Amino acid sequence: MKVSLNWIKKYVDIGLDVVELSEIIGSQLGAIETVENLGIRYEGIVIAKVVSCQPHPNADKLKICLIDDGRQNKSVERNSDGLIQVACGAPNVHAGMMVAWIAPGAKIPSSFPKAPITMEVKDIRGIKSNGMLASAKELAVSEDHRGLLEVDQGEPGDLFSKVYELDDYVIDIENKMFTHRPDCFGLLGVAREIAGIINKPFHSKDWYLKVLDEVFESSDTLSIKVDNQIPELVPRFMAVAISGVSVNSSPVIVRSYLSRVGVRPINNVVDATNYAMVVTAQPLHAYDYDRLKALDNSDEANLNVRLSKDQEHIKLLGGKEVEIPKGTIVIASSTQAIGVGGVMGGESTQVDNQTKNIVLECANFDMYTIRQTAMIMGLFTDAVTRFTKGQSPLQNDRDLAFTIKKIQKFAGGEVASQLVDLHGDLPKNRTLTIESKFINSRLGITLNTAAIAQILKNVEFEVEIKGDSIDVTAPFWRTDIAIPEDIVEEVGRLHGYDNLPISLPVRSIIPVPKNKDLELHSSLRQLLSGSGANEALTYSFVHGDLFSKVGQNKDLAFQLTNAISPDLHYYRLNLLPSLLEKVNMNLRADIVRSEDNEFALYEINKVFNKVEKDDEELPLERYDLGLVFAADAKTTKRKYSGSPYFLAKNYLKTIISAKNLDYYSVGFEPLTANDAESNPWLNELSKMFEPKRSAIIRGLNGQIYGIVGEFNSGLERQLKLPDFCAGFEIDNRLFRDNPANPKYEAMPNFPKVEQDISLKSPKKNSYSKVYDAVWSALNELKPVNTLPVLEPIDIFEPDDHKENIHISLRLWISAFDRTLKAEEVNKLLDDVAAQVKDKLGVERISSSDTP
Amino acid sequence: MDYKFKKVKTAAQSLKNPKRLKKDGLSILKAPELKSLYLEIPKQTGSDRAAFGKEVNILKDELKTLADQALSTDETISPIDVSAPFDINTSSDKRPRLLSNDEGSKHPLMTELEVVREIFQDMGFVSIETRQIDDEYHMFDSLNFPTGHPARDDYDTFITKEGLVAPAHASIMQNRNLKKYRSNLDKGQPISVVYSGRSFRNEDVDARHDHTFYQVEIMYVDKNIHTGNLIATFKTFLERYYSQSIDVKTQPFYFPFTEPSFELALSCPFCKKKGCNICSYSGWIELLGMGMIHPNVLKMGGVDPSVYTGFAGGLGLERLVMMKYGIEDIRHFESAKLEFLRQFR
User: Fold this and answer.
1) What is the per-residue pLDDT across B212-266, written as a single tens digit (0 to 9) for each?
2) Cβ–Cβ < 8 Å for A60, A117
């Protein structure tokens, strides 16, 4: 919303400079986007008279003018008569014309604010030219560039800015601030607010408070007929015909004022309607009466207010032909649509230089319907901006009268028809009864009733004090006032929020519950980052191609219908694809790092699919932890052998054991054995892994919580992953569902005996089966009062016996009450070996058989 | 490949199942689904016939490639014992170890979020997370945005095919919080919640705007809560966060779900109002949006607005972190670039 300070000053005596004013607007009305000093654009531009005008000797289209600037300019070269020579190519330049002269050193106003162009003394084809004579466009008065602006006020030597009140500032207030304030899209509304803020009673102009009935002297010269078929969507429709207008440009000052607040001048009739809109926020429209009549071959002008039919078309102002969506409010003649109601008029009845008679419309439209039409048709006009805020139908008659007077002033003409005013029950001004206590308690202040009343009266609320309570009647333009809280806002804002005394709320010291999930995530981050991993965040949305690259079914993912970028078309199903997508980039990145090119990237975030729902019947938001480890070939060769699966598993083991889950009881089972089919999250996750080199993670409670392992070769190729790359993704409910079980073992004071045991096991036995068998045998057979610890040392596949595997374990054992003898431990291991041989067919071998 | 013909698409879905490819190998080319597609070709009419035939052939070629891949995978990759602590035949110096502690890093947004959340927790707010996919009711209706209201246009909301939304603000939790904690009020306790998480706006991305960002919001409802309480609460938060005294000033704003609504600016903690490039030499930083909760919002949450009043307000996390470290481009946050991440150890 562009606000001209000079225009505002016509309604309120401000007495503040622009800096102070901007300050109070910002703190008590709404955020300011820009404040522009218009005056500097016009420095050095004066009004001059063209005294003579001769053809240029060396150019057909140029003329040499001698101009009289009232001898104001002291630095320019003059002839013996004191006139200044300027070359000019405008077709309308002639002797005797009053023009605006941009002197050398002054700037072209239209070149602001981007790159102001400064005028110079120039040699134009052998003739010296001092500055230039300017068009309306160059002067930023209108878009008109067909010739020079014909100055219609002032004397030679007058400053252009003085004559046209251009020593002005334009303050652009964010429209968003006024979403609920229909009145503030008019300068009258803004002026009223400023008065309220500086605590001055505001008085709207008489024509706005009281209808100028005398304007509507009815006549029957021209006949108009209006039929409103949709009163529920068009609560009020007023129209009147005016005859004998002479359409031309508006006075320069009118064009200049409209231009500075961002409204394009068209002609004096259209400008008059726009002038009223800028002042009061009520859009109006003028139709060419004779063109309208001709459309129907009728002897009267017909206006029908109705909903559009199937496949109705219209040529809009500006010439664009469009189809009107069915069900749109249209204004139509008897035969065709002539305007999209409340949005934009049509070309067939536009007012231009040929127009003699007009029909003037001032109507009220349903804001929701207008918004919908604007969205569907993509038309966001000044009228739309205003109608979608909910204008009051009580202002139509006032605005119509005001506009008629403006038209008569700019273009002449007389009211030539009966006044049409179609409406049902019009809304009444709302009265709210409020106790001052109510207002004070919500703002934390202690204003007395009289002070509150004054604040409201300043902005033209009607106020009646009744003891401690106040009857507040909102003026008709305040359609936003509905509940007592609206009055609280009004008082708070005009009093100034920054003037409110502040204090913290007071409450009991009862502790608030902690959020276990957030605490878990915090400690997971601590652990992983402390283990050399890097926390990443990636978008919740992914490109459709990513699903096919990793082999997932994108039909399970929620699809966004209105995302512009294809990178954001789907909600992700799992975290890993987003992380894997970042691996290659990071391995190749030219960054400073140690000798090793390797990293572990992880993210804790939510994933989604269309199948699973939560308690609210909304999509389940599953909280996952995903981690990817990757190393380039060189690093791998130097540091690792075997499968990277074990590295990813190590990370998982670190967090699981740190959370005091009994790590050895969390199962790692081959992926092929999983029952993923029934769970879309797990099923889609499993598609990324190489089944022979990955494992499902089973909690103590038997449920599967994720997968760890290497990725399948198809995916590795698609995402250009290195050979040594593995990862995991788990559902963080693993931790919540399998609660911590902290353990402590007392420590024996007697020395530990250390003994290794090597076993030859058929390959069908997994490592954990063998380890578990040894461990349970140990615990069953150990001497009383002892504490064993068993750790793996080596796992080895002999070259000659591929059907077997050798496992070496190291036992430390000590007693609480004595020093254990070596023989006791030897016997224990013999007994253990015998038991596992019976159970699993595992044979003890001498440790010399292992490398 | 996106197949246009439904029959081809359905067959492709069932044939391209990786498990099946692995099991069937090249014999997948003799699968009944593919055969029946070939039988369908002559039944197609007009120009469809050629197009249909072309798609079937593309599918066949695709399946051959996929089957080849599946087979080669099987041959070169040997199974591992997933229950073991390390791989077979690995010398102890080449077994997997975790990376060194000094390579690790935490994401700056997450670190800061913890700091912010913790201050509010210390002030007595229960901490919860916001949703990342929600319905229109919580995004708009429950927050006093009538259907079709132009205020909805200010929130460039992503919408799914099902009509769900990617929340454009953390306020989607207000109605839930009121319902979940309204029993506090009966016990003489306030409703006091801090809620944070990802929000989304369908807008153009540049150095200062991303379509994904984090918001932290608080709400507080009790008897006799007024606008001065709201300003004091945020001033106290800011002073704790920046460990110095801070001035605040307001600017009226419009949110349908609060009344009055305003933005709060703080005196620049980096230059103490002297003017610096962080505050654009104004001495002030506009950071927070807030207001008194609209009575309609309280009502929809089952709280009687004639007895209780409350406030809500929040801030964007990225801005806070960008100012703190002087980060010049918001897009770094979700880039997952190590060069960026490792600076936040």
Assistant:
1) 999 999 999 999 999 999 999 999 999 999 999 999 999 999 999 999 999 999 9
2) no
Task: Give the nearest partner residue to A534 out of B220, B225, B341, using CB atoms.
Answer: B341
pLDDT tens per residue across span A754-805: 999 999 999 889 999 999 999 999 999 999 999 999 999 999 988 777 788 9
Amino acid (one-letter) located at A706: G
CB-based contact A243:A291 (threshold 8 Å): no
- CB contact burial A36-61 (16+ within 10 A = b; e otherwise): bebeebbebbbbbbbbbbeebeeeee
Residues B329, B296: contact at Cβ < 8 Å? no
pLDDT at B72: 54
Q: Do A568 and B158 touch (CB under 8 A)?
A: yes
Task: Please tell me whether the overall predicted TM-score, pTM, comes out greater than 0.90 for this model.
Answer: no
pLDDT at A39 over 90: yes
Q: Which two tokens stand for residue A402?
A: 């005001």
Q: What is the structure's pLDDT at A19? A: 93
Across A23-32, b (16+ Cβ under 10 Å) vs e yields ebbbbbbbbb
B131 touches chain A (CB under 8 A): yes
Asked if pLDDT for residue A851 goes beyond 50, the answer is: no
Per-residue pLDDT, A805: 92
At B73-87, the pLDDT tens digits run 556 688 899 999 999
Which of A389, A421, A429 lies closest to A184 in space, CA to CA?
A: A389
Q: Which of B139, B330, B144 is nearest to A539 (CA)?
A: B330
Residue A714: the pLDDT is 87
List, in sequence order, the alpha helices (H) in A250-366.
Answer: 252-260, 268-280, 289-296
If pLDDT is split at 50, 70 and 90, which confidence band does A676 have?
low
Interface ipTM:
0.86
Chain A CB within 8 Å of residue B75 CB: no
Mutual orientation of helices A449-458 and A484-495 as an angle, nearest 10°? Answer: 90
Judge contact between B343 and A591, C-beta under 8 A: no
Smallest CA-to-CA distance from A599 within A657, A669, A529, A666 is with: A529
pLDDT tens string A623-651: 999 999 999 999 999 999 999 999 999 99
Which of B100, B151, B345 is the closest to A179 by Cβ?
B151
Which of A23, A185, A518, A649 is the mutation pick for testing B, counting most B CBs within 10 A? A518
The answer on pLDDT for A741 being more than 80 is no
Task: Flag whether pLDDT at A848 surpasses 60.
Answer: no
* Sign of the CA dihedral with A161 first, then A164, A169, and A171 last: negative
User: For residue A294, what are the contacts with CB-CB under 8 A and spacing of at least 6?
Assistant: none
Residue holding tokens 């990725």?
Answer: A711
Which pLDDT band, with edges at 50, 70 and 90, does A664 fall under? low
Contact A242, A414 (CB under 8 A): yes
Task: Output b/e per residue, A277-289; b: 16+ Cβ within 10 A.
Answer: bbbbbbbbbbbbb
Using CA atoms, how far residue A360 sits from A280, A366, A382, A407, A416, in Å, is 17, 20, 18, 10, 11
The alpha-helical segments, DSSP class H, found in A85-179 are: 160-163
Sheet with A689-698, side-by-side order of all strands: A534-535, A598-607, A622-631, A724-731, A704-711, A689-698, A667-670
Answer whether B43's CB lies under 8 Å from A682's CB: no
Separation of alpha carbons B248 and B250, rounded Å: 7
In DSSP terms, B94 is beta-bridged to none
Q: Rounded to a whole number, what is the distance in Å from the CA of B276 to chain A's nearest CA?
A: 20
Query: Which among B88, B129, B228 is the nearest to A797, CB-wise?
Result: B88
